[in-house]
Protein 1
Amino acid sequence: MLIVGNQKTYLNKEEVLDFIEKTSSVDCSKVVICPSYIYIDLYKETSRYIVGAQNVSEKGNGATTGEISASQLASLGVDYSIVGHSERRDEQKEISENIYNKIVRLLENDIKPLFCIGEHLEEKKSGSTKDVIGKQILEVFDRLDSNMITNIVIAYEPIWAIGTGLTPTNDEIIETVQYIKDLIKDKYEIEIMVLYGGSVSRKNIDLLNEISIIDGYLIGGASIKPDEFLYIISTNE
Ligand code: PGA
């Protein structure tokens, strides 16, 4: 199981140091923590986490003020990067073209993309979840070679479940994740990991753990609370 913490921009430096201190008694060596760029070194220095980024530039090193390149991330020892998170799709208007460019940059630098896909509530209600996420996958994967696709981890995150306390039923998650895995297997003959994300918490982790088809979790809000995050990790050892 791959547990990924997406700490977004929740924490200031003191709070990051406090989080590191409070998680120091537990083995987090298989956990990926995705802090803000500015705290990557703090986590790397502990040598206790696998470290990921929350985003990456579409371009290589050069005249791109304010961006962080994949090569820069690699030079810090970053192993994963989130791409296509719904907060960026919605707020920064990122589309498949941007996400494709980022995935290529990451793979060129041996960083595994954590590729987020998911549907809005209206799309779920109108029964178009599979169409929406199928399109999100194919628009990117159709442009990649199979040896690139193999290195991608998908995070299925229903947008209406992110930060809301709402989650799909286990049966709904199973149906969607099965669809994702079948689509990729049928089209590209590749099996890749699929994580679930969206309001994963101490309260629902035992129920979610009953789903054997998912390969891990992408955790937002609960990844900044040391006790809750450690509890979730402990149920997946
Ligand atoms: P959440 O966020 O766990 O707070 O719902 C998940 C995410 O945005 O990746």
Protein 2
Amino acid sequence: MVVPEPGLPTAVTIYEVGARDGLQNEKALVPVEVKEQFVRRLLAAGLPVVEATSFVHPTWVPQLADAAELMSRLGADGVDLPVLVPNERGLDRALELGLRHVAIFGSATETFARKNLNRSYDEQFAMFEPTVARALASGMDVRAYVSMCFGDPWEGAVPLDQVVRAGVRLLEMGASQLSLGDTIGVATAGHVTALVAALVDAGVGVDRLALHFHDTYGQALSNVQAGLRAGVTTYDASAGGLGGCPYAESATGNLATEDLVWLLTGLGIDHGVSLDALVATSTWMAGHLGRPSPSAVVRALGHGG
Ligand code: HMG
Ligand code: MG
């Protein structure tokens, strides 16, 4: 039953990260033809944005070492799908394929910058600056992530102003959107409200924010609700709840796209995604990965792929 809540956005963009955030953390290497099929099925299910892979160092994330082959196979469909690039080398690889959307990924904390990027906190910005400048000069759209927005497994709680500083610095480089990453899934609703308010107070339009929740403590949907009440209209999610970050202890699956779709549908918020097609896709993918989806909605509705 659809029961809208007054004051919430009427439409939301779901930014699908299953093929990237999901598959980067899988122990099993997924064949490139299965990844291609996964991306195509996600697009066919109506997802407007599908982040497909990462042009990172292949020994850092061997699961995505086939990035160039995947994007070549996707051909014209792949050109508008975002890919992660950490540096100019990654950007060159994306440019060679004519891709039009890249995402850089910074850290709000010193420790995670070193663990994930092999750079100090300040050095990460020095790495991103020429990368973003060249991407923009080439006509690309650049998204920026900031990780460890709510807590860091090595440094503990992360102060709001520290996240705001990192996020504003990435946006000032020219990123069109800032995705606030709860990398280890420790956020709770009041913290989300406070962080969005702190960014808005710092002059960041709420329309430039996206929220990226991992569901480690089962809080992701409650956090989405807080984001909706604060006016955020882009949510990252991963089909079937796949995901994590190989360089963050205790990072588990992302918010499952199906769980997000269920919530949005119930609230009468437009999202454009076919839940049936999505559940079938995640059930099919779970078959390839050899384990069931952790998504409650996939478990409730899934029956074969
Ligand atoms: P490094 O070892 O310091 O690299 O790694 P370097 O700059 O010293 O270069 C060393 C060699 O690597 C050179 O080759 C480079 O060309 C090559 P050589 O001259 O020795 O032959 N190289 C590359 N090759 C291919 N592609 C590249 C590339 N860059 C350098 N892009 C680096 C630094 C940033 C590359 C490395 O640390 C890295 O790849 N890190 C990525 C880690 C990662 O992907 N983490 C997961 C994504 S982040 C995430 O999941 C969080 C998020 O979901 C949000 C959230 O949840 O919070 C986004
Ligand atoms: Mg993530």
